[in-house]
Amino acid sequence: MMATMPRSDTYLLLIRHGQTEWNRERRIQGNGDSPLTPLGHEQAEAVAGALRRYLIGSFYASDSGRALQTASPIVASSGQPVTTDPRLRERHYGLFEGKTQEEIRQTFPEIYMDYRKRLPDFVAPGGESSAKLQARAMEACTEIVSRHSGQHVAIITHGGTIQAIARYVLDVPLTVQWRLRLENGGLTIIRHSDRFPDRWWMITLNEVAHLWQI
Questions:
Q1: Is 68 helix (H, G, I), strand (E, B) or coil?
Q2: Any residues with CB less than 8 A from the CB of 34 and at least 6 apart, and which?
Q3: Which terminal Cβ of the chain has fewer Cβ within 10 Å, N or C?
Q4: Residues 17, 92, 152, 210: which is the catalytic one?
Q5: Of these residues, 42, 90, 128, 207, which one is catalytic?
Q6: Residue 120, pLDDT above cutoff 60
Q7: 62 band by pLDDT with thresholds 50, 70 and 90
Q8: H-helix or E-strand spanning residue 189
Q9: 17 catalytic, yes or no?
Q10: Which helix (DSSP H) or strand (DSSP E) does residue 210 occupy?
């Protein structure tokens, strides 16, 4: 049975990509990339099955390879294209990308402690801040809503990007440390409505029941 929601509102179904080789090795990916593992492909298939409950009108994705690999089984039965948007990429970590936490500590000891504090304006060498990530991600979401009013839109993106969007919707400041882990293949649904003063609403956060079969 298809899931039904008020058609006057727009729902963004945010999917974190499947597990990658660098996820498994605990390396920072950022704008770098790494292919899905066999488990990552299974997660992509599982979330594709979960999304069949929804009448999805459009599909968007980060232009990173891991997001597009995850998107492939999701759109396979829809016959629709995936629109890529670089604003949906993961946060750019510059010279930190491809490194583990220990490698960062050894290579950049003078800035490692600032990095660990996760300050919203901290920028890794050659990267971007979490504040900039949130700004570009919400810009993309706002434009998607304006193009697809009243639809369900699937967006295949990244853990950091979804966290930034969730913080905005829930009004959690970037300065606040929170214990939220977004699983590979997890589903987060937000709603945009013109019927209430608060336009953005959280519907589900990191839904993972569809992954339990793996």
A1: helix
A2: 20, 21, 22, 23, 27, 66
A3: N
A4: 17
A5: 90
A6: yes
A7: very high
A8: strand 187-192
A9: yes
A10: none
